[in-house]
Amino acid sequence: QSALTQPASVSGSPGQSITISCTGTSSDVGSYNLVSWYQQHPGKAPKLMIYEGSKRPSGVSNRFSGSKSGNTASLTISGLQAEDEADYYCCSYAGSSTYVVFGGGTKLTVL
Amino acid sequence: QVTLRESGPALVKPTQTLTLTCTFSGFSLSTSGMCVSWIRQPPGKALEWLALIDWDDDKYYSTSLKTRLTISKDTSKNQVVLTMTNMDPVDTATYYCARYYSGGAFDIWGQGTMVTVSS
Q: Which positions ≥6 away from B54 have C-beta within 8 Å?
């Protein structure tokens, strides 16, 4: 059982927007602004899409955005494209004892 | 350009010790804020964080696996080594190394190495 809770799957049609939630606790997501999101296509290594909750690395489309409210972080993808179909994982810093926790992953299907 | 590459055995027997090496380039692990971590992913399952070593040689381990893991670095060789003892078939997974920086994210990942535990 993963430390952060994500929906197992979400879906949307091309051009639509979807949001993936990531629920943690006051010991991880709620305490630190250090949530990151990763995109993983089949057979590939994860790719960083969002860091520090809402920042995008260079080269990541501005269709990807992140936010946080309390113990829940969210990833929103607007203007869905076929290439966005992938697994998405959230991750949070959780203090020096636990350090890092991942979510269970969400499979995004573009209909 | 920052790159990381994992290497190690593709097959280990139950009870054996696994040793994986992460060889990296494009950054120095002696630079303040730099860290390298190991993450694994069983087939069809989620990512699981294993261990992290920072520029100051501080080491952090997954609570559930800490008795089996050891992480170390050789700054001169730009390598980070992970050992995992008493391997079991449930440890079958793709093992990734990744750079983790003070911004709290794994920004660059290796391609991963698949390890199967079977007799």
A: B34, B35, B60
Task: Answer yes or no: do A99 and B110 touch at CB < 8 A.
Answer: no
Kindly list the residues from chain B whose CB atom is less than 8 angstroms away from the CB atom of residue A46: 47, 96, 98, 106, 109
Residues of chain A with a CB closer than 8 angstroms to some CB in chain B: 2, 32, 34-36, 38, 45-48, 51-52, 55, 57, 89, 91, 93, 96-105
Cα four-point dihedral sign A64, A53, B63, B83: positive
pLDDT, tens only, A5-60 = 999 999 999 999 999 999 999 999 999 999 999 999 999 999 999 999 999 999 99
* B62-101 tens-digit pLDDT: 999 999 999 999 999 999 999 999 999 999 999 999 999 8
